[in-house]
């Protein structure tokens, strides 16, 4: 639940809140090629990658799923659990063997409800992750479809 300290990366969840969440974390492993979740599926859990790589992908008619982003060490996999209707917006696949911490979304939402300071910290953390991913997706789309690539974000 850490993140790089650079301004372009999402900030880390504060240590006190990270420690509380880690008390309910479960260590899991996924073999290469395993699907963590499918687009449209019930978002009932999320993960923090310990080792390996997870690709986020999107269904494209008559094609293989398009990879949106690759997630690695200490990155959040799954944010849809926090927002109703709690359905995954993308799919996720382990592209290498993955070890991760898994969190039960219902339990985390209950913790956030019971402790507003924790709830605010988690919402800001997930919001930062979302904002970062939207900026990254914008840059990738510009690289793919703009006449001269994205260049710098102006």
Q: What can you see in these coordinates?
A:
The protein has a single domain (15-143), classed as Jelly Rolls (Sandwich). The chain is 31% helix and 25% strand. The chain contains 3 helices and 8 strands, in the order αββββββββαα. The strands form 2 sheets. A 4-stranded antiparallel β-sheet has the order 1-8-3-6. A 4-stranded antiparallel β-sheet has the order 2-7-4-5, with helices on one face. Residues 2-9 have low confidence and may be disordered. Residues 9-78 form the Cyclic nucleotide-binding domain. Pfam families: cNMP_binding. GO terms for molecular function: DNA-binding transcription factor activity.
Describe the structure using short key phrases.
154 residues, alpha+beta, Jelly Rolls, four-stranded antiparallel sheet, 8 strands, 31% helix, globular, disordered N terminus, RmlC-like_jellyroll, cNMP-bd_dom_sf
How does the SSE layout of this entry go?
Layout: H1 15-22, E1 26-30, E2 35-37, E3 45-51, E4 54-58, E5 66-71, E6 76-77, E7 91-94, E8 98-104, H2 105-114, H3 116-145
Antiparallel strand pairs: 1-8, 2-7, 3-6, 3-8, 4-5, 4-7
Helix pairs in contact: 2-3
């Amino acid at each position: 639940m850490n993140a790089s300290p650079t301004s372009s990366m999402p900030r880390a969840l504060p240590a006190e809140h990270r420690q509380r969440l880690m008390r309910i974390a479960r260590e899991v492993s996924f073999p290469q090629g395993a699907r963590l979740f499918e687009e449209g599926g019930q978002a009932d859990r999320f993960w923090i990658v310990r080792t390996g790589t997870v690709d986020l992908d999107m269904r494209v008619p008559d094609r293989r799923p398009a990879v949106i982003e690759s997630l690695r060490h200490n990155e959040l996999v799954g944010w849809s659990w926090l927002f109703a209707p709690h359905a995954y917006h993308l799919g996720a696949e382990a592209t290498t063997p993955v070890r991760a911490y898994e969190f039960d979304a219902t339990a985390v939402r209950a913790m956030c409800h019971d402790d507003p300071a924790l709830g605010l910290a988690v919402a800001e953390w997930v919001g930062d992750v979302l904002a970062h991913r939207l900026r990254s997706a914008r840059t990738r789309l510009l690289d793919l479809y703009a006449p001269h690539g994205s260049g710098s974000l102006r």
